[in-house]
Design brief:
This is ATP-dependent DNA helicase. With 1216 residues, the chain is α+β, with helices and mostly antiparallel strands. It is built from 42 helices and 36 strands. The protein has a 6-stranded parallel sheet. A 5-stranded antiparallel sheet has the order 19-12-14-13-22, sandwiched between helices. Strands 3, 4, 8 and 21 form a 4-stranded antiparallel sheet that branches. α18 crosses α24 and α34 runs parallel beside α35. The radius of gyration is 38 Å and the shape is globular.
Length: 1216
């Protein structure tokens, strides 16, 4: 390897070995050959240059010519390292090397047992079923599912093959260089996608990377060309010469002769024939074309569809009698676009005509059956292998460390497309009879020796196609999740069953932290990044290709190397015996995959001191004479940056500081870090290398393990992490989820604020070609060992039940399996098995195995799992206390047994906890706050603390507390006497309202009256009367001041728990079983004053909630509601709202207003002695008083006090 140029995938910097030949000569010179005399002067000259560099100060340092590499020996390199680093303590920003460095390494142990060559993948036989090439670790089901999947290779004309393959023809090179432009030019649809422009607009030596986020759209225009001229399918309406003129005009940079040749090739395409037939019609506006989305051809052998199979054309008024079952109808002229959906079979040929020149159809669900499924599947079924407690996808087909011994690891690739989730979120097998989207496109990506695969020659178009096809499958999965989540009503949730969702990532993080709880903190943090120039990748490239052109090869070779790394670390124990581990696959900015391993070692392999650290990790440039190849690899893969003042534009720079704290300070010996990574030994030994025209020393070395670096020839960072106290940050780092685009949703205050997690994920997810093919191949992204089983915690009769939308709920309840759960079967096993009673619920999976198919526990034989009880919030009350009991009581046989202590069965789980002393002196709170820091991040801890302060104990006492508080509100005798003093209008309203209260008749009232007409006076009389009858009356108002003048008054938002963000589907924030719900159910009268200042959405929110808790379709569930207010005064606040928007926010515009019985109060009780003033105020409120400028009225002179400047001066004197 020494002496050969090399580059990384980004092509930014070339590795130039200028000293390989010199090393060879030096070696020969030591043996006494005739090169000694020739080399001695050069060596003396280089030594002087080195001393000058080491001793440079001030301006002397700038006199070194960075480009004059001939002055320096082979210790100077110019590699391009993958940008990577791990945060340590903050060190000084820049240092000069020390010339007085020692050359002897006293800790040579770390360099022992270096391999003599890099690890090379073994060649494995091709698939015996389809002949596809295999890489190590790919099981027999990887390519064709043992012969079940049979997809014919795309038939490509010879001329198209020449354009894709030829390395000598100028037009072929030009065609491949502009392949995406040509495909877009000849496609029948316009391609819509949001790209990362920094990566998609490669220049010079930069690497092109197709990185998309959000949805991908393929849109078809109307038949009649627009003002900008014909494009896409419209270009096929014309004769050859005319269409070439249009095409060259639209894309003048494309070669006209090449366009003509491609057009001739596509003449046999059925879609071209269909659109070309429209060129002879007179008026395109009168015509329509239907594109068949369910083309029926057998893809197990080549069958190009005929013209009449793909499209139907007709004129308005002459609709065909037998049109296609499902189709896209494109009209002659239309105001909207026509989208080709991801599930249409015409999706591929319409969008990628250069890949499907004959119009071959693509994938459609349940359209491509397995080949001979009846003969192949029974053999698999007879083996009776089930997936019951594997944590995720298997890490290695031959490595059983990740799954129990009584399960078959080779079944993983077979089941990957059959895996679903049950009601508890656990994976279950659902047999398929048709080829899935992943299987279809995985088969399309296979390498068949001797067969031409047009995708493999597509270059940049191949990257686009791969991302497009993966997003297609992603959308199909998301659409299923969206349909299931639509029943939630309040929030559209992306569940943890979807890999990569926030809930999935959080669940895996919690599982990983469970391993820490059981085995201790991790000891090693290993990060491996793919080297796109591995020999195995270069050997598979076609002539003229670079690794970026073959993301499929890069992904497969990386996966095979990763599996060997897994075996080398876990099974062979290179770093010691591993007790538990977790790994996550991620993808860099430019798409290269990298792996994070967190290893928890056995007690005998734990690292106890810095001396132990030096045995496994180095952060120095190795001696070039002793370890020439290792020196080359460190300079190529393990040098950070440069960044800082040397390169302020480096991606790691944030606020002019390197976020990885490079360069690091020199240190003569490794030291223990303070809640951080160790301070590794970085001596001033004079070792310097040239990186991007800058000279770097040991302070820039990323810690590495020499054996791993030599074995895998790639960036492989090895960090000692046992000294980090908050190890959850490590697990949070590796479980941070996919690369996402950052954006904000803007929404009007009055708009619906429904949270759609599926839409957010779909819009934000960023995907590169390598990640797309990695997922299409079905390679897992997560794994851990031992596996963690999430154990459900539910109250009696409240376990999760799975059923279909068409099932009768009565039948669901009666089904026997629906009555069993993991927890209830735990009770059953304890009642039948005396051995089982020794264990806590969370310890059960270590000794028993949960079989999801039969919903039962059986004795475990080998490979235990670790149990994790799902989280219960203290605000959940009884469920929280149930979880506390399950963590302390061994061998319970029932829920009643859990509540029994010393022969006494307590009525609630909380009471049982109190009797056992589990919650004495707030012990449950202490336990909760002690346990949470092991799993939760600071934000979640703060939220938990706030919840405990606000809701602790409410779930157990909330039901009675709410009622007791209202019942304790008494009434004053004076308020009862008010009834006799009501005026005529007030008395009429009082009698109507009390009639409905006494007779339980539903009605919504609104007391309308200007200020001073006695609305509050009426409320006090009603409240006193109802409460004197020992019935509940609730008094609320929009503001605290208005609520305080009513006995027992509270603000409406506090009493009804109205959410801050309101929409047309929001509900109040309390459950049907809460004390608030029971209080509202028992209330005889509910008063809401100043409702005229309230937005109608708040009132409608209470209406929906009341209908729900009362199970009634009547307004407010049939309760007697009394609103009060004055629309002549202040209306709801709408920031920067127009008059129309403010009016629309009032209760007057609500659907509720049609059900309101209005009570009018007109007599002003405050201004009885001045009726003229009261009438004047009323005219202003009614809008009939004379005004000017729309906003001003003239005050009468008799109510205005005259004043002059003298009065003001006198007042000031008086104040002094």
């Amino acid at each position: 390897c020494i002496g050969t140029p090399n580059t990384d995938m980004s092509n930014n910097i070339h590795l130039v070995d200028i000293g390989g030949e010199v090393n060879e000569k030096l070696s020969n010179a030591k043996k006494g050959d005739n090169h000694t005399s020739a080399l001695a002067p050069a060596e003396i000259k280089r030594q002087r240059e080195r001393e000058r560099y080491n001793n440079r100060t001030g301006e002397d340092a700038t006199n070194i010519n960075a480009n004059d590499t001939n002055k320096f020996d082979s210790g100077f390199w110019e590699p391009d390292d993958p940008m990577h680093g791990i945060e340590e303590s903050r060190y000084e920003y820049f240092r000069e090397p020390n010339s007085n460095a020692t050359k002897k390494d006293p800790y040579d142990f770390v360099y022992n047992n270096l391999p003599k060559s890099h690890f090379a993948l073994k060649k494995v036989p091709n698939c015996q079923y389809c002949g596809a090439k295999k890489f190590p670790g790919e099981g027999p089901a990887f390519c064709c599912r043992k012969g079940l999947v049979s997809i014919c290779t795309t038939d490509v004309p010879n001329e198209i093959q020449r354009l894709f393959k030829s390395q000598s023809d100028t037009d072929a090179k030009y065609f491949r260089k502009n392949i995406r432009y040509f495909n877009s030019h000849f496609s029948f649809t316009s391609f819509g996608v949001s790209l990362d422009r920094r990566l998609a607009t490669a220049r010079g030596t930069e690497v092109y990377t197709f990185k998309a986020h959000g949805q991908i759209y393929h849109k078809m225009d109307q038949l009649v060309p627009g003002d900008k001229g014909p494009r896409h399918m419209q270009l096929y309406f014309y004769d050859t010469d005319e269409t070439i003129a249009h095409r060259t005009k639209r894309s003048p940079h494309l070669d006209a002769d090449l366009i003509k040749r491609i057009l001739n090739i596509l003449q046999n395409n059925p879609y071209v024939q269909s659109f070309k037939s429209l060129g002879n019609v007179g008026n395109l506006e009168e015509y329509n074309i239907a594109l068949n989305t369910t083309i029926s051809v057998d893809q197990r052998r080549f069958n190009a569809p005929a013209m009449e199979q793909v499209a139907a054309i007709w004129k308005d008024g002459n609709d065909p009698e037998h049109r296609f079952e499902r189709s896209i109808v494109v009209h002659g002229k239309s105001d909207h676009a026509f989208y080709v959906r991801h599930y249409h079979r015409c999706y591929d040929p319409l969008a990628y005509p250069l890949f499907f020149p004959s119009g071959e159809t693509g994938w459609e669900d349940k359209n491509i059956p397995y080949r001979n499924p009846t003969t192949s599947e029974p053999k698999r079924a007879s083996r009776k292998r089930k997936r019951q407690d594997g944590p995720a996808l298997n890490m290695h087909d031959s490595a059983n460390d990740n799954i129990p011994r009584d399960e078959d690891p080779d079944d993983e690739q077979d089941n990957i497309d059959n895996i679903g989730r049950d009601a508890e979120g656990q994976e279950v097998k659902e047999p398929r009879q048709h080829v899935s989207a992943r299987e279809y496109y995985c088969n399309k990506l296979q390498i068949h020796p001797g067969k031409f695969n047009v995708m493999h020659h597509g270059g940049r178009l191949f990257q686009q196609w791969a991302v497009d096809m993966y997003v297609k499958g992603l959308l199909d999965t998301l659409s299923v999740g969206e349909a299931r989540a639509s029943h939630a009503g309040k929030r559209v949730v992306l569940s943890k069953a979807f890999h990569g969702s926030d809930r999935d990532v959080h669940s895996r993080f919690m599982d990983a932290m469970t391993l820490v709880t059981r085995f201790g903190k991790p000891d090693f943090f290993v990060t491996m990044t793919c080297n796109p120039y591995w020999d195995e990748i270069m050997a598979e490239l076609l002539p003229g290709q670079t690794p970026q052109d073959r993301p499929d090869v890069v992904a497969r070779v990386y996966r095979a190397k990763l599996l060997d790394l897994h075996d080398f670390l876990i099974k062979k124990g290179h770093l010691g015996k591993v007790a538990a581990w977790a790994h996550v696959t991620e993808f860099q900015q430019r798409g290269l995959p990298h792996e994070h391993f967190l290893l928890i070692m056995e007690p005998g392999s734990k690292l106890k001191s810095p001396d132990d650290y030096d045995k496994f990790t180095s952060a120095e440039i190795p001696d070039k004479e002793k370890y020439p190849e290792l020196n080359r690899l460190v300079c190529k893969h393990m040098m950070h940056g440069p960044c800082g003042d040397l390169n302020p534009k480096c991606p790691c720079m944030i606020d002019r500081q390197c976020r990885f704290r490079y360069p690091r300070q020199f240190c003569e010996a490794t030291q223990q870090g303070k809640d951080s990574y160790p301070i590794y030994r970085r001596r001033k030994d004079g070792q310097i290398v040239k990186i991007r025209k800058h000279y770097l020393d040991n302070g820039w070395v990323v810690p590495y393990n020499p054996v791993l670096l030599m074995r895998y020839n790639c960036h492989i960072n090895v960090e000692i992490c046992s000294s980090i106290k908050s190890c959850k940050y490590l697990y949070k780092y590796i479980h941070k989820g996919h690369d996402m685009a950052s954006f904000a949703f803007g929404q009007h205050e009055d708009d619906e604020t429904e949270i759609n997690e599926i839409k957010q994920y779909r819009n934000a997810r960023m995907i590169t070609a390598i990640e797309a093919v990695y997922r299409l191949f079905g390679f897992p992204l997560y794994s851990m060992n031992p596996p963690v089983l999430q154990m459900q915690v539910h109250l009696p009769g409240m376990h999760m039940v799975a059923y279909k939308a068409t099932d009768d709920l009565n039948d669901v309840v009666q089904r026997a399996k629906s009555q069993r759960s993991m927890l209830t079967e735990f009770f059953k096993m304890n009642s039948e098995n005396l051995e089982a009673r020794k264990y806590l619920y969370r310890e059960f999976p270590e000794h028993f195995r949960w079989i999801k198919a039969n919903k039962q526990w059986v004795q475990r034989k080998q490979r235990p799992q670790i149990g994790r009880l799902v989280y219960a919030n203290p605000a959940e009350g009884e469920r929280f206390y149930l979880r506390v009991l399950l963590n302390h009581v061994r061998g319970p046989t029932s829920f009643e047994h859990l509540r029994t202590f010393h022969g006494v069965t307590y009525p609630t789980f909380r009471a049982a906890c109190e009797a056992m002393g589990l919650v004495d002196a707030d012990k449950s709170l202490d336990d909760s706050l002690t346990e949470a820091p092991e799993h939760k991040m600071p934000c979640a801890l703060r939220r938990l603390f706030a919840i405990i302060l606000a809701y602790y104990g409410m779930a157990a006492r909330d039901y009675y507390r709410e009622l007791n508080e209202e019942i304790k509100i008494g009434f004053e005798e004076e308020d009862l006497k008010i009834i006799e003093t009501l005026n005529r209008e007030q008395r009429a309203g009082y009698d109507d309202i009390m009639d409905h209260v006494i007779n339980d008749k539903p009605q919504v009232f609104f007391v309308d009256g200007p200020g001073g007409t006695g609305k509050t006076y009426l409320y006090r009389a009603l409240l006193a009367k109802v409460r004197s009858m020992d019935r509940i009356a609730i008094a609320t108002a929009i503001s605290g001041i208005a609520a305080s003048i009513m006995p027992g008054g509270r603000t409406a938002h506090s009493r009804f728990k109205i959410p801050i963000k309101l929409g047309d589907s929001t509900m109040c924030n309390f459950t049907k079983q809460s004390g608030t719900a029971e209080l509202l159910r028992r209330a005889a009268l509910i008063i809401w004053d100043e409702v005229s200042m309230t937005k109608r959405q708040a009132v409608e929110t209470l209406d929906r909630t009341m209908r729900d808790i009362m199970e009634s379709s009547l307004p407010f569930g049939g309760k007697v509601m009394l609103f009060g207010g004055d629309f002549r005064q202040v209306l709801p606040v709408v920031p920067r709202g127009t008059r129309a928007q403010i009016t629309d926010a009032t209760l007057l515009r609500s659907y509720i207003w049609n059900s309101v019985w209005r009570i009018q109060l007109t007599r002003n009780m405050r201004a009885q002695s001045d009726t003229l003033f009261a009438e004047y105020l009323l005219r202003i409120g009614n809008g009939i008083e004379k005004s000017f400028g729309d906003d001003y009225v003239q005050l009468p002179d008799d109510i205005i006090l005259s004043w002059d400047s003298k009065d003001i001066g006198d007042k000031k004197k008086e104040s002094r």
